[in-house]
Amino acid sequence: MNLDFIRQIVLSTLEELKANIKLCLALSVVVMSVCLLLAAKWPNTYKTTALIQADRKSVTTDLLRGRAAIQEIAPVNIAEDIIRSRLILTGAAKELGIIDEKSSQYDIDEAINGLSASFETEPLNNNLLRISLKSQDPQRSYSSLNTLIDSFINSASQQKQNESLDAYNFINSEAQKYKAELEAAEKKLSNFKKQNMDGTESGVSDSINELRADLDTLVIDIDETKTKVRTIKGKLNKEREYQKAKVKLAALAEQRTEMQRDLDELLLIGTEKHPDIILLRSQLATLDEQITQLQKTVPGSFNSGNASEEVALFEVLRRQQAEAEVNLQGMQQRQRSLKTLLTNEQRRAERIASNQAELAELTRDYDTTKQIYEEMLERRQNADLSASISREGKGMTYRLRESPVLPLRPSGLQARHFIFIGPLLAIFAPIGLMLVYVYLDPRIRNGETLSTQLPEGIELLGSIPAYQAQGTETSWFQANTPVIIIAAVAILAYGYSSFLLIMD
User: Fold this and answer.
1) Cα 225 versus chain centre, distance
2) Within 13 A of 258's CA, how many CA atoms are on the CB side?
3) For residues 69 and 386, is the Cβ–Cβ distance under 8 A?
4) What span, in angstroms and rounded, lies between the C-alpha atoms of 48 and 45?
């Protein structure tokens, strides 16, 4: 597509406009009439705007942070959904008088949908939300936006109060529950201590160590006493053998004396070769040998001066043996008693160990319940403070950064816009339609179009322009004088009507 083709299209369009001037004028009149009608019927829209700020920082919040649970408010992107909720819109519709208690569900839904469609929300950042409400009545636009914002802020405040109260009630019920559990755990621990009076592990351990030390000392004493008893028994046995040997030696000495006397009597009446004398001498020799052997075993046996001392020594040894045996029996009985005590203490230690495990578990349960109960008491106090803050309207809340202002001028598309667009559309609509018509028309209007459609090898020899007779222009104006007058009248009527609409 070159410039010559475009020029031919434009020229053809102008020719078609001249040829169809009446149709084009009728189209222009229709377009202006439609625009004028739209300008007359188009309702004016009044827009009221407000700016809501999520007040997340305040002196009260900073002072009580970490002490009281400040109820968080929703960010503006969530608040944007909250303000369109059915609860908020229903409350605003009731405040505006659109619906009442007698309204049907259909009327309520229609009112909610209409109110929701009448305003727009635009979050500027995480803390700012712009709300715009449009209405054909400026006063209604202003009052509707005020009512909607008041309903939203009051609902948010009431929601905070309800959440704080619910939190307080929940924490209070939990605190009461843990109080009952704490009292039960305390009673259980007290009963357990009353029923188990075995002492402590340290006391039992000291007692066991003391009993073991006594047993070790007693074992040594028992070994020493047993050694002493064995020694005394040995000495007594030797003393008994000595006494037996002494008695036997005395008997042999007496027998020898008698035999010697008999020998002396025989020597008085006989010789050494007498058989009886020989026999006696042989018996004496044998008896002397026995006496000599006994004297070797019991030296000094013929010393009769030590007889009383020997008897006293024997009695002392017997008394010492009796005392040692009595002491040994006493020690052995004490050893058995200490072993019994040690066994009992070990069993008591086992019971204490078992009781200590149960006591530790009861104590742990008591301490844990007490800790949770104390935390619940602190949280209940914080929840009460938080509820008080919510009731007083302190802490985090929504507030109006920019209050709604009564709109004095309409906004959006207005009548003057249609009045201004009407003449432009009346001019460019016929031109555009003719341009499209010429471009899509299959007829050949110039040589350029024909040359592009000729087969290859065939050239266009030339083109003969249309013949224009002299005076054609004058005859065209004369022929279209009524059309020109109608166009002028239409323009004047449009201008006058537009003036009246603008001044209205």
Assistant:
1) 73
2) 6
3) yes
4) 10
d(CA 194, CA 188): 10
Q: What are the tokens at 67?
A: 């002490």
Report the chain (504 residues): mean pLDDT per 10 consecutive residues.
Answer: 69 75 79 78 79 61 45 61 82 83 86 85 82 83 85 78 80 86 85 70 79 85 84 77 75 80 75 76 80 66 50 72 81 85 80 74 87 85 74 64 79 71 80 80 66 71 63 55 73 72 66
Cβ atoms of 28 and 429 closer than 8 Å: yes
Question: Domains in the chain, start-ordered, CATH in brackets?
Answer: 201-374 (1.10.287)
Sole residue written with tokens 């009353």: 194
DSSP string over 172-237: HHHHHHHHHHHHHHHHHHHHHHHH--S--HHHHHHHHHHHHHHHHHHHHHHHHHHHHHHHHHHHHH
d(CA 303, CA 294): 14
What is the residue-wise DSSP string for 389-411? HHHTT-SSEEEEEE------S-B
Choose among 48, 45, 44, 43: nearest CA to 147: 48
Element (H, E) at 90: helix 86-96
DSSP letter at 85? S
Separation between Cα atoms, residue 467 and residue 472, nearest integer Å = 10
Listed in sequence order, the residues at least 6 apart from 341 whose beta carbon sits closer than 8 Å to its beta carbon are 211
Both tokens assigned to 39 = 């300008």
Stated pTM of the model: 0.46
In angstroms, the CA 486 to CA 396 distance is 70
Roughly what angle, to the nearest 10 degrees, separates helices 481-503 and 415-440?
Answer: 150
